[in-house]
Every structure is written in C-alpha cells, then in structure tokens.
Amino acid sequence: PAPAASTSSSTEALHQLDRQRIVHPYLPASTTERVVMTRGKASSLWDTDGREYLDATGGLWLAQVGHGRDELADVAASQMRELEYFTSFWEFSNQPAIELADRLVRLAPDEISKVYFTSGGSEGIEAALKMSRYHHYRRGKEEKTWILARERAYHGIAYGGGTASGFGMYHDGFGPMLPHVEHLTPPWPYRRDLFDGQDCTDFCIAELERTIERIGADNIAAMIGEPIMGVAGMVVPPDDYWPRVREVLRRNDILLILDEVVTAYGRIGSWFAAEHFNVDPDIIVTAKGITSGYFPLGAVLMSEDVAESLEADSGFPMGYTYNGHPTGCAVALANLHIIEHERLLARASEIGGYLLDKLSDELADLPRVGEVRGVGMMLGIELVADRDSREPLPNPQAVADAVRREHGVIVRDSAQGLVLSPALTLTRDEADRISAAIRAVLTTTH
Ligand code: PLP
C-alpha cells in the first residue's frame, strides 16, 4: 500500500531546501524540480505526495532484486551490530569479505582467481587502470602505459575512468585529462556510417590492429570496454566482436579490462557478460548489482597472473578506507543468494525477452523509433529525427520526462534515446505498462 501522503507544503519545503542546499550532478538547480522519493517496494517507488511510480530503470541500473527487501535490511542491521567496520584492509580482514570473494571467484569465468574490493564503480575503474599499468611495471615493462578505450564509453567520473569515457562532456573544462588514452570506434551496428561500409566487427578489429601498430604494443597496458555500452544507449556489439578483440590483445600482451559495472550479476541473464560474449578478460570491474544498491560496494576481479604481479614484492600500493567493508560484503552475499534462490538470471532473460518483444511490436511503426535492442534486462530504444538518415532525435530527455510525468513510469534518456533496466523481478503486467507508457508518449508530439 502507498504511504499516507505528506502535506503539499512539506513537499514544497523539501523542494526549496533541496535547491538551496544540494549540488546535484548534471542538471541545473534553477530549472529542475526534483521528485523527492520516500519509499520503494519491488518495482514501485512513492514520492512525498504519495504518488506511485514504476521504476523501469531499476534505480541507476542496479536494483536486481527490487526495492524494499527486508532480508537485505536485516542482514545489514545484524552485521552492523556485530562489526560495522573497523580499520585498514591491508593488515586485517573480515569474514563477510572473505566469503564474498570466494563466492565471486566461483561465479566468475575460469580465468578469474582473486578480488579487490571498492566502494563503487568509479573507484573500481581507477583500480583496474592502475592495476593494468602496475602489472606490466612489475614485469619490467614500464613503457606499457597506454590505455585503449572507445568513443561513447562510460567508465565513471574519476580522472582515469573519466578520461577513458568517450564523451566530451566528461572532459571539457576538466583538463588536462589523463595522458596516454586512445579512443576507438564503438561497435554500434545501427550507426552504420561509422564503419565506411564495412562489417562492424571487421572495421573495429582493423582499427584496433592499426592503432596497436601506431602506438606500439610495447607501449600499451590495456584495453577497457563495457560489454554492452550503457550510457551510449545499451549498444550491443556483434557476437564476434569481443572474442576477436581478445585474440588481438592477447597476441600483443595487452590486458583486457571488462567494465561490467552494469552488466554483471544477472542484468543480462548471466552472472557476467564475459560468459554471454564468450570472452575471458584479465580484469572485470563490477559494482551496482553486487548489492542491488543496498550498500555502495564494488569488486574488481582479476586473473591469477595479474594478482601475482600486484602482490609481489611490497604489495599493491593502492588502498581505500572502505576496501572490503564488512556490512557491504554481508549485504552482497545476501543479495547474491536472493538472485540465485529466486532464479533471477533465468527471469532476466525471460521477462527481458518479453519486454523486448513487446517494445519491438508496439514501437516498430513509430517514425521516431530507429531501433529497439537489448539483452536480458538491459534494453535501449534508439530515437531518431528521421528513420532514413538515422539522424538522432535532439532531445530524448523530453521523452523520458513525459513518460514519468504523464504515466508515472521512470525511464532514462541516454545519449541517443531511452534506456531501460528494470529490477529482474519485473512482472509481465509491469512490462506491459512500461511499453504502453512509452508508446503513448512517442505517438504524441514530445
Ligand atoms: N562503469 C559503467 C559502465 C557505469 O555505467 C558506471 C555508472 O553508471 C560506472 C562505471 C561508474 O560507477 P559509479 O557510478 O558506481 O562510480
């Protein structure tokens, strides 16, 4: 049931105080009236006026088990009572972290053998980038410092990941960014103009080989990429892209870092996208779905080879206050248990497939819908101003806002359309509601 509505004056007072006191990212204070949420249950959220919303974005792409799960609140409370946190993770350890690391390694691809914990995705990306350079440094290959990334990538907002991210807005005004980062063409089949009329994978592989030749394999530490590019608009590469990239990198002693901050822990119907795309990375960065957002936690998974060089000599000189946070790790263990116990991997494929079909059927005839795509519960709708030229729709945010305002369904706009990533517990009725709301807005003039 919805909670009792607060008075409108308290909602207004909150809006005013919010504008006065908080610097929010991305949107300006002056023109944005932010909905203040108070409660969540499964895929529903309620605001201060008691209005219900269907959360089709699963928080920020992470609410695998849905909102308001008592089991996770109970685990957090009891771990906090027992041992909330203590001190440096270099001299000490704790049982939830040890058990979680073991669990992750057992779930991960065969190559993975050790885990480094962080508080979230951006910290994990920084760790992974540093690890890749340090790995080569420890092996006497100090020149291997370059990082290959892709245009339209998103790898968080710290300086390393922010530089690897392939959008100007994360660089402009923040420079100088990290040196020695090169951006390649994203494997985005719908954007055929990127590939000079060639097959998407053939083009990307030839470009990768040329780039390695130009910079020199002896100067490149790693390539980083999201298996499916989230912020770009849930861009799904052709099946042969990752295995072929992997082969080129291995031949050149360049590490592969998969940024699975969004794709891991069931979001696309597998524990890791590495499995889905049949690729074995040296380092996998994860966060978000590891706790379904109930606690800020990240985990960087790595091969024995990488772990061996990091742990040699005096160890890996990079530590955070919150490495291996016991409460976060306990919540993660309970969250993974729910994902397994409720068979949410299979459910992500089943309901995600249902939603993809539904959206494809109901939106296919609309002139502003260029492509509907996705895997599991990671879905994108590419919006265009013109279907023939595939020119992007200028303001997808207006569409996302209207879907929320007029239909109470929360969807996100991406660089070129809408993105959906509901809880893996989504029902078919909820999937129907999402599709109907988007169709209704796209058939009007927004
Ligand atoms: N990498 C990817 C692919 C992401 O989508 C995100 C966040 O959305 C990050 C990294 C950064 O994670 P965080 O926001 O937890 O720092």
Task: Give an account of the 3D structure.
The chain is an alpha/beta fold. Helices cover 38% and strands 17% of the residues. The chain is built from 14 helices and 16 strands. The strands form three sheets. Strands 4-10-9-8-7-5-6 form a seven-stranded mixed β-sheet, with helices on both faces. α8 (241-251) links the parallel β7 (220-225) and β8 (255-259). α7 (200-215) runs parallel beside α8 (241-251) and α12 (344-363) runs parallel beside α14. The protein is globular. Bound molecules: pyridoxal-5'-phosphate. Pyridoxal-5'-phosphate (PLP) is lined by residues 120-122, 125, 154-156, 226, 230, 259, 261-262, 287. Keywords: Aminotransferase, Pyridoxal phosphate, Transferase. This is Aspartate aminotransferase family protein.
Summarize the structure in short:
The protein is α/β, with parallel strands linked by helices and 446 residues long. The protein folds into two domains: 8-65 and 343-442, Aspartate Aminotransferase, domain 1 (Alpha-Beta Complex), CATH 3.90.1150; 72-341, 3-Layer(aba) Sandwich (Aspartate Aminotransferase, domain 2). Helix content is 38%, strand content 17%.
